Amino acid sequence: MDNSKPQALLHICCAPDSTAVFERLKEEYEVIGFFHNPNIFPEAEYKKRLEEAEYVARKLKFKIVVPGYAQQEWGQAVKDLEAEPEKGKRCDVCFRFNLQATAKKAIGMGIPFFTTTLTISPHKITEMIFKAGRDAAMKYGLKFLELDFKKKEGFKRSLELSREMNLYRQNYCGCRHSM
Predict the structure, then answer these.
(1) I want to staple 64 with a disulfide (CB 3.0 to 4.6 A). Which of 29, 33, 37, 167 is the partner?
(2) Would you give the end-to-end CA distance of the chain in angstroms?
(3) Span 25-64, pLDDT tens digits
(4) 135-163 CB burial, b ≥16 within 10 A, e <16
(5) Where are the domains of the chain?
(6) Within a 13 Å sphere around the CA of 72, how many CA atoms are in the beta-carbon half?
(7) CB of 118 within 8 A of CB of 95?
(8) Domain 7-169 architecture
């Protein structure tokens, strides 16, 4: 543990996205990964993404916390939003669900900062993610790191690192409704 750097809890949606994000964050923070993704369906897909995220954590030498697979809980959160289009209300609820859980975990671990790999994706609405993060930070008295990781060619770098590490790269966001 590097006591000279503050800790930051990083919500990880998938291994490829965590690569370039970790690379950028490690300069200023002691990064601890948090693989909280009960939205991922089916469970076999969840397990595949988790294995890959754990591989990246070992390879890049950071700790990863995994709270478990709670698909039913997430299903209740997005109930009646199944027909929403990608980037719609269901995604907003999903971001909030995962970032609230991340903030709650950060509080429990005594970590003052948190952020997410979600902003590296060119397929996500960054401001929607930032709003969910700010709201979670306010609720738990933490600091959400509003970093748009796709900037400075972050997404391109994640593709390069994914190829170098031969990572599995999924072709959908994760939930059954985005398949």
Answers:
(1) 33
(2) 39
(3) 999 999 999 999 999 999 999 999 999 999 999 999 999 9
(4) bbbeebebebbebebbeeebbebbbebbe
(5) 7-169
(6) 0
(7) yes
(8) 3-Layer(aba) Sandwich (3.40)
